[in-house]
Amino acid sequence: MRNLHLTLSLAVSLLVAGCVNNNVEPTLKTSSASVSSKGLFECINRNGNGYIDRSEHVYLRPCGITEDLACGNVPDAFDESSNTDTVQFGSRFLQLADADGDGRISSLELRAHCNNMTVKK
Questions:
Q1: pTM of this prediction?
Q2: What dihedral angle (degrees, nearest 10) is formed by the CA atoms of 68, 64, 25, 37?
Q3: pLDDT tens digits for 60-101?
Q4: Judging by DSSP bridges, how do beta strands 51-52 and 105-106 pair with one another?
Q5: How many angstroms from the chain centroid is the CA of residue 36?
Q6: Within 13 Å, how many C-alpha atoms sit on residue 54's CB side?
Q7: What is the C-alpha to C-alpha distance for residues 68 and 120, in angstroms, rounded to an integer?
Q8: DSSP for the chain?
């Protein structure tokens, strides 16, 4: 039974990985249709707890969240911001993406946010 579970998990992972366009050049502002919300989530969720919390807001811009709060690819370089600006930016993103209001963003909430931003463009 364990082998079947591992095989199915691997098959799903490969299927999902095959749906991501890895040939997109990273830029500071890109279409969220070309980004993997899973990769974006893993970039931001540095402590590995499964949620983007306030302590990780400093990683939003470096990992590809753009000024219009859209999801993008991880850029080659980014401008350093002041702490106040980072807190305000993180608070705006949290208000928009935290669907259940628990003060943190799950991978599902980030995926829904990225998909929603794609539809609006």
A1: 0.60
A2: -100
A3: 888 888 777 677 665 555 555 556 688 888 889 999 999 999
A4: antiparallel
A5: 8
A6: 7
A7: 12
A8: -HHHHHHHHHHHHHHHHHTS-TTPPP-SS--GGGS-HHHHHHHH-TT-SSEE-GGGGGGTTTTT--TTS---PPPS------HHHHHHHHHHHHHHH-TT-SSSEEHHHHHHHHHHHHHH-
Both tokens assigned to 99: 């669907």
CA-based radius of gyration for the chain = 15
Question: Residues of 22-31 as b/e, b for ≥16 C-beta within 10 angstroms?
Answer: eeeeeeeebe
What are φ and ψ of residue 105, in 5° steps?
-115, 120
Report the distance separating Cα 35 and Cα 22, nearest Å.
9
Tokens of 112: 């829904």
Q: What tokens were used for 57?
A: 């807001």
Query: Cα–Cα distance between 8 and 22 in angstroms, integer?
Result: 23
Domain with residues 23-120, CATH architecture: Orthogonal Bundle (1.10)
* Domain coordinates in residue numbering, the chain: 23-120
